[in-house]
Amino acid sequence: MKADLRVLVSLPALALLLGAAGCSSSATSPTAPSAPVRGATIQGTVQTAATGSSAELSAFSTAGGIKVTVVGTSLSTTTDGSGRFVLQGVAGGSATLRFQGQGIDGTIELGGLVEGQTLTITVRVSGSRPELVSPSSPAGKKVEFEGSVESVTPPTLMVSGRKVVTNGDTRIKRSDHAISLGDLKPGDKVEVEGTTQADGSVLASKIKIEDDEDEDEDEVEFKGTIESITAPTLMVSGRKVVTNGSTRIRRGDKTVGLTDLKPGEKVEVEGTRQADNSVLASKIKVEDGDDDHDDGDDN
């Protein structure tokens, strides 16, 4: 009887052991660690500024959230009811996030992303534009970037989704001419140099309009016939040409004065266009083959 009892006890124990082993093997398969996701992870929360737009955003969030997309890729997600989102597999380097929703459409720039990093951000929407609240760029860091002017609200402007602040020390230029903030307009392509601020904006030390056409138009070179001379100006084929002490006037290999020119002579003029559409000449060259030969014979 004792032997039988030991067998009866051993068999259930063996069954339990076999069952436990079976359960163990089936449980470990679904919970086995999956292959790690390459790239960086960006997670964050979308908020609203303390304005009337908060009601709109709350209503929109309950309807399904805000679409968040990594521009130029297929990565996208939607915020949950609390405004949270997660994007995985973002390539290292820099990324542009686009936020789209009811009355919302804008981008923010993120830089310094590295493989395996998890970056947590907070984005605040004011009106239709998103703005990075945290982490902000280190204050005082020098930056230089190019973009298109989206809006101008002195003393600030938006350039390709980035807030740029100006002050009395900001130099704003078109070609070599100093202009004011009011001369900028949406659509202008600009190059901005400055330093980052605690709120993520850029305090501009220099803003330069990148307008190749304007630069080309400032530089003038043309040929024509002298119609009249009234020092220090002359009319060349209907265009007013102004001379000054820096203007070089050449006839062949000789430097001559304005009084040596005469109506009817053909000249080539190089200079810059002025505000009144006249040309300030840097060089005037007489194109007169006969005169050149005569000068050579005299020598």
Description:
By secondary structure, the chain is α+β, with helices and mostly antiparallel strands. The chain has helices at 2-31, 53-62, 212-218, 289-298; strands at 40-48, 67-70, 76-78, 84-90, 93-101, 104-113, 118-126, 129-134, 142-153, 156-159, 162-165, 171-174, 177-178, 189-196, 202-209, 219-230, 233-236, 239-242, 248-251, 254-255, 266-273, 279-286. The protein has a 5-stranded mixed barrel with strand order 9-10-11-15-14. The protein has a 5-stranded mixed beta barrel with strand order 16-17-18-22-21. Strands 4-1-7-8 form a 4-stranded mixed β-sheet. The model is unreliable at 1-31, 51-64 and 290-299 (pLDDT under 50).
How would you concisely characterize the structure shown here?
This protein is an alpha+beta fold. The chain has helices at residues 2-31, 53-62, 212-218, 289-298, and strands spanning 40-48, 67-70, 76-78, 84-90, 93-101, 104-113, 118-126, 129-134, 142-153, 156-159, 162-165, 171-174, 177-178, 189-196, 202-209, 219-230, 233-236, 239-242, 248-251, 254-255, 266-273, 279-286.
